[in-house]
Amino acid sequence: MDRTHNQGRDRYRLIIVRRNGSEILFSSNGFDWSLPCVEIHSNQRIAEQLTGKLYAERGLGAYCLFSLNPSRPEAQRERAKYAVMEALQDNDRAPAASRWLPIGGKGSRLVDPPEDNAAITDALQEMNTAIGPFARPGWLRELFEWSQTQIDPLGLRVTGAIRQLNASPAFSLIRLETTGPAIWFKATGEPNLHELSISLALARLFPEHVPEILGVHATWNGWLSKDASGTLLDDCEESFFWEKAARHLAALQLASVGKCTELLESSCKDLRLPRLVKLVDPFLARMADLMAAQAKQSPEPLATTSLTLLGERLKEACALLHELELPDTLGHVDCNPGNIVVSPTRCFFLDWAEGCVSHPFLTFEYLREHSRRRLREDHAAGKRMAAAYARPWESVVSPDTVVQAMAISPLVAVFLTAIVHPAWRSVDPLQDPGGAGYFRSLTRRMFREAAQLAEGRERCPS
After folding, report:
1. b/e 217-239 (16+ beta carbons within 10 angstroms → b)
2. d(Cα 78, Cα 86) in Å, to the nearest integer?
3. In Å, what is the CA distance from 158 to each residue of 37, 47, 136, 183, 398?
4. β partners of residue 158
5. 192-243: per-residue pLDDT in tens?
6. Could you tell me the residue range of the domain that residue 58 belongs to?
7. In this structure, what are the phi and psi dihedrals at residue 53, rounded to the nearest 5 degrees?
8. How many domains does the chain contain in total?
């Protein structure tokens, strides 16, 4: 249960258990039993909304275990959505017009609509054969106990209050309240197992820029960290905060100069320019196939000659960036305002599954792109943000070098977005038309960036 990008609202049927999964909550209309339901926004965090809505509407504290895909074809046709949850307390009274019933009891088999019965069966089977630690009832109590041992030296106690952001069998992101500052537990499964090792390396190398780690739960591939006090950049409309984030990003990257070997050994992706150049030809060959498979006439597919020209300009851009001799640094291919916390004195960078070693200015391009969308009413904000990022770099390279790197980076940054995950190699335009369209769209964006770069160089010959 992570962020979803669909629009509108979704109605979820909730399979809520307690007492180690031996009881389940049902609602009653006086004649039939049914699963409780809540409605949430499709484009916001699912787990956080479900727990909040359930408490607000029914006064029941619970946390999510996983979402469920119904096995019955009729439920799938109806696009039924189910979430499996566990009550925080075993002995609280049931909400009004609701009742806790033993699983498998007579009442729990008289559920309306009928497909809910199949969903309950599927949920119980998944809990009993849990493929990940967070699909199993009772894991939150274990987390409380383990977390307490980690914060005992700080003189803190967990209070039992939580804020759950993400939930799935192998992934978790949850905030635990304490008698002092809050703490966060995060755990990752495939394909992001490496985020733990990256996070540990960054906490050791750059403690000023990432949250302090308090403990590691190796069995769950999880870690406990201090709360990054401040405000998410995602919630900031003033350009001042974005300029501050850009300045601190430059400081973090400069601090990483000379540490690339350690970063790569910690599982950061190797996305240095020579590696990117080697991927230009195979990527564009694959894009030629996807362009040829495009069913719609608009937007017009890029011709083979255009893709050939794009390949030449991509290689030239990488070569030009390389010639500027800026050092490779820590990078973040998912550098977005939801991963940055700003405070009056510090700036924290979070969620390093997409951590990499690459040309520094490519990471800044991602942050700048987000600022354009968020601060579009402030036409000068982009220039101020670029100046804030450039200033620290001008202490180690010439201002002219910074200007040239900033002009070239947008094209290479889009290419990096396209090739960072291997899906471009295997996406099937028939089975996954949305995925194929995404890569075609990125390729058209590259072509536009390449044209703008060429025009700029013609206006300002060296």
Report:
1. beebbbbbbbbbebebbeebeeb
2. 25
3. 30, 21, 21, 9, 51
4. 178
5. 999 999 999 999 999 999 999 999 999 999 999 999 999 999 999 999 999 9
6. 9-129
7. -65, -40
8. 3
